[in-house]
């Protein structure tokens, strides 16, 4: 009996050792796909779109919320949109300054990294502001550039396009490696419609069902099955043929070869420089400095 039990344990141990790598691969693939559904929400800011002027549909507002959350995670900056039907007599710049003092927005803490786009439909004013990290990365000249990019869409009433472009343009300058940002999001400074972001897609350009856990589970199971099948098929025997099996060492004449690096081409996009220190920025009543840009649309 002891010998029988030992024999069964020996076989079970060998089986577990042989196929444990398959199980490990399966778990790794499953974790990789399932991880795509987890988004690290802002530690402080929970809402990003404040559409008091009611310029957006519910679908557009939700799409922009998702985009702000995704790009906020990428840049560690809260990207806010404020639409107003009047500012109670305040200048729009003063309104944004007071909003920052009173609401204390920020990605990871109150009064943290924040970029704000505010428009007033009553006066047709537009104001962009950058606080903390955004003040450094989105200086006055950079915000001037972004404002000029989105003003035609605002004037045409394409508010969704203007707001999403503001977020993408801001994120492009807020990341440390804009080239990597382009590769990941397919964004190179063009308008939102040119990079494939639509209301029927997620902010990353993928269909919404792709991020559903059920779909990802099926895909991970299929891939794991393929990997396991290939490895089981290849585990039947050891390949003993190598490069020397059919080589005639007496007649073979192998010459040396080498690769020579010729040139490398690097394309850079110059970030606008701040040539006007006064600009559209300033200091809020609460003592928070910021960059800024203002105009009409």
UniProtKB/TrEMBL annotation:
Keyword Transferase attached: no
TPM domain span: 50-169
Ribosomal protein recorded as keyword: no
Keyword annotations: Membrane, Transmembrane, Transmembrane helix
Positions of region (Disordered): 264-297
Gene3D superfamilies per UniProt: 3.10.310.50
Transmembrane segments: 210-233
InterPro entries per UniProt: TPM_dom
UniProt cross-references to Pfam families, sorted A to Z: TPM_phosphatase (PF04536)
Superkingdom of this protein's organism: Bacteria
Bias kind Gly residues: ranges: 277-289
Protein known as: TPM domain-containing protein
